[in-house]
Amino acid sequence: MRIPVKAGLTFGFSGLIIIFASLIILSSSFTSKKILSTHARTIMENIASYTIDKAEDYLAPARNAAQLTRGLSSSNIVNSRKIDSMVAYFYEHLFLYPQFSNIYFGSVDGEFIMTSRYNQIQQGGYLTKLVHTRDGKRIVEKIYLDSEGQTLQHQFDPTDKYDPRERPWFKKAQSSSQLIWTAPYIFFTSRNPGITTAEPVYAGNGQFLGVIGVDIEIAELSTFISKLKVSQNGRAFILSQNGDVIAYPDVDKIRHTRGQNKARLTKIGELDDPITREAFLSLGLPPDRLYLDGPIFTSFEMNGEKYNAMFSPFKDEQWPWIIGIYMPENDYLGAIKANRNINILIAMIAVAIALFIGLLVARKLSQAKETAESADNAKSQFLTRMSHEIRTPMNAILGAGELLSETELNGDQKRYISIYRSAGEHLRELVSAVLDLSKIEANKFKLESIPFNLHTTVSQVCDVFFSAAKDKDLEFNCTIATGTPEHVKGDPTVLRQVLVNLVDNAIRFTPSGSISLMVGMVDQNTDDTASDVVTIMFSVIDTGIGIPEDKQKMIFENFVQADGSTTRKYGGTGLGLAISQKLTTLMGGEMTLTSEPDSGSIFSFSAQLNIDRDSGAPHEESRHDTHKIRTYSKPKRILLVEDDERNRLLFTLFLKDIPHILETSNNGDEAVAKHFANPYDLILMDIEMPGMDGREATRRIRDREKKVGCAPTPIIAVTAHALKEEQIKFKQAGCTGYLSKPVTKTTLQETVDMHLRASIAPKNSDI
Prior knowledge:
The chain is an alpha+beta fold.
């Protein structure tokens, strides 16, 4: 069998080489100037679009930093009264974005907080400048730091009269009441070209607090452009609408020095490059009024050689710039004509060695498969690690939103918090979806087989979406056919996930009409050696927008929706159907789709389940929980071990109202020492910590308990690891339970309540 496969690969690959070589010969024979010119324009369009995207990506962090600081200030998380926190916040952005020169905040009272990556004492160091009042007296501080952030010098400057309210960026941002960008200019400190973005900051009640500003250097754009391969002798450059050269392969040429050592940007007419100047002149526009609605192609001649040029505006109107590209015609036409015979010869040689290459491909097939499997395993490990790293700060973000929602908020603030929490939940769902997809593709996704109530599971899914359907004024019907078994064995979590994805999509893509979920048994096979196997069919029927026939197979691919515009209009990542189809296959079934545009869709899938002959469904969750009231007698002692300061604060706030005593530790060594000195009743243990991690700390506590013969202390692993394999490792290390970040307030309190056997009631309540 192996020989025919290799032969098929060999001759198949040889056939492709022959076809490809024939196309090369035909292409070389029928090459025309018009076709190549069109190709050259396409190249220039692609280069322009790519350059614009990179430039905008480079500038976007400054806008995002200003907008984020404005939001944090309006929520009183970062403000000028908390100088240390604001300085730390600014330096964090300087370290994250090397293109930032300065970040600063000027208040309406004339106070000023600035962090800068330039100082006069040490190259590569940093400078903190503070202008504030103390006891009615104006004070100006300058703190010089080295490259490691250590203080070099701290001085007061009584001669400094700087007032941010008099600066153009402050006045323009205040008067416009929105984010503004300055025109490019040469920074005084670094002598590099840059721009400033500024945005007004308002308190929650609408009171104007001041302006946040970010200076961003754009010299990196020149470095980027210098590396672009336009053509052998082609070149790209960026201009402002005023004719200033913003980016050029030689960054030194865009600084124009005038009297008294003052510098400004070079005008296009002053640029020391005659070809670039001639390319601009071919545009036929005044050098100080460059307004383009779209790409413009031009041609010009220089020293007897013909050039083609293109000028295209940036997509974002915040940066009113133009990218220009030119290339000599012979760069793409002359070389091809000159090498036509060589191309044909190369094509013939390719045909001659096709058989040899085919054999080589066949021999390398096994090695390529192993490499692909290794790469897939590396991808899974990467996604697992990234899931952990994302979930840790996400826990603090979602927790902070939950705490904020419990405070007294006005209407706008409630809406902002709702948006904030909704976005956070979407991010959490996206991380989980990507992780699920990774496990499925790596064949590491294992289905459970536990007893559960099928009718209850379907009803729970319907209960989740009744409110959403009602909000859209949709009729929502759930029907379970007579004869459908109730007590079955399988994986209820996976089944629920597929149902939730399909019903959620149906509601999302149905503007009006109805949604129906229909469940029924379609087949039953009795096996004497095993439980009865039944095939259950689930159908989700909607009257929504429908899906064209040519798009129906595409929507089951990763990150794909039928129409790219629906992502923005209806939301979603394009992962739900891809994961659902794979999970359906794991359950022994298949998914089908029947749909027409504007006539709705029917998503159906089958799943094979085993009938639970015990009929007790011991693992089934009751829909009518009996709430027992427990009494509280004596406060218990809880130790929270968490190296992340944000999460320590968050968990402390989550547990501030419980009738127990909470203490904290930021590392495993300290936690073990505290527990050995005065044992706690419950330990909430982070896993990933520097030094002694949570696993090792748990092992030492368990070893000590065995030696002294005392009862085990409940230890709950609180971590961002989400894989079941990791949960097994935590239990092997001695952990009693497990909480996956992000952790909600309710989940944390219920966990504490369960292990300490006391009701979660406020400390000052009568019990």
